[in-house]
Amino acid sequence: MKGLLKLLRWGTGMTLLGCALFIGFYGLSVSSIASGYKENHEEGEHSRSRFGFASETNPAYQEECGGCHLAYPPGLFPAQSWTVMMSGLDEHFEDNAELPEDARLEILNYLGKHAAQAGDKVLRGSKDEALTRITELPYFIRKHDEIPEQRVKNNPGIGSFSNCDSCHQNAVQGDFDEDRITIPGYGRWDD
Amino acid sequence: MKAFTLFLIVISSLVSTNLPANQAIEQLQERYRNNGATSFEALDGKALWYSEQNGRSCTSCHGTSSTAVGKHRKTGKKIMPMALSVNPQRLTKTTKIEKWFLRNCKWTLGRECSPQEKGNILQWLQQL
After folding, report:
1. Contact A159 B104 (CB under 8 A)
2. Cα nearest neighbour of B96 on chain A
3. CB B92 within 8 A of CB B19
4. What's this model's pTM, rounded to 2 decimal places?
5. How far apart are CA A51 and CA A176, in angstroms?
6. CA-based Rg of chain A, rounded to a whole angstrom?
């Protein structure tokens, strides 16, 4: 009887220990994916940065679009947004950004390939499938709701929330980490 | 296959080579002359550069001095000086020059620049 009780105790103990270890290792494996800079998939698929959107670069995109503003990570918008954006370059946010047709198609193709897809974090809460202003993206709004608007809009070093790289100084490398933000005139952003 | 790759590299380098600025400008001005332009006047180029239409001018983004760094009026992005004397990387690629003339003339003047106007501006920037 005593032996059976001992065996039962041992069995229960081992089961509990096993469960605890499993949960621990599972947690570790999940968080190592989440904190890895990029999660690479098979060739042809796009990779996601841990910010929830893809940020591959392309020389033509950098040259033609990055000439005037940060070459926004293509994964910030769904493909339809990019199609709309690239169809009206002669009136691009009150600017003329016309491109020769071959360059336009090359860039559109690149953007479409790495665009946000249904289920991506960046599209959560977004109803408009052809949104073209990142500042209207619910994901973007949620991420910036602690920043006082005046600190950006009235700040001569920024001017608009759309100028990502004014505060995310490494944005051009796809780095939007909240530990590496400096607001011009205010210094490091401390959450 | 190797020969074909080499051939492609040679051809593509011929198509998009960066020329010394004076050569790129000379090529374009030759093209402009063939399209009806006459001799190019730096002072006319300068006048057009500083002229203002509906609050818009080349200086809106390039700044009042073409030897200094400009700033995109909306995005704040730095625009390197246009004057060749301080920025020899400027005006070295004919396709790039034409692309920016198209975009910027349309934004600033509301129309494309004529071959004469483009040649004048290049003449001026070259001498700065």
Report:
1. no
2. A64
3. yes
4. 0.73
5. 7
6. 23
Q: Kindly provide the ipTM of the predicted complex, given to two decimals.
A: 0.76
CATH of the domain at B26: 1.10.760.10
CA distance A115 to A86: 13
Q: Is B12 contained in some domain?
A: no
Tell me which chain A residues have a C-beta less than 8 angstroms from the C-beta of B103. Answer: 95-98
Q: Please count the residue pairs, one from chain A and one from chain B, whose beta carbons lie less than 8 angstroms apart.
A: 37
Give residue limits of the domains in chain A. Answer: 59-186
Query: pLDDT tens, position by position, for chain A (191 residues)?
Result: 667 788 888 888 888 887 777 777 776 655 444 433 344 443 344 455 556 565 567 899 999 999 999 999 999 999 999 999 999 999 999 999 999 999 999 999 999 999 999 889 999 999 888 899 999 999 999 999 999 888 898 888 888 999 999 999 888 888 888 888 999 888 888 76
Residue B6 lies in a domain: no
Q: Biggest alpha carbon distance in chain B? A: 56
Interchain pair A68, B102: CB under 8 A: no
Taking CB atoms and an 8 Å cutoff, what residues of chain A touch B72?
68-69
Bridge partners of A182, per DSSP, are A188
User: What's the structural domain count of chain B?
Assistant: 1
Question: From A163, which residue of chain B is nearest by alpha-carbon distance?
Answer: B75
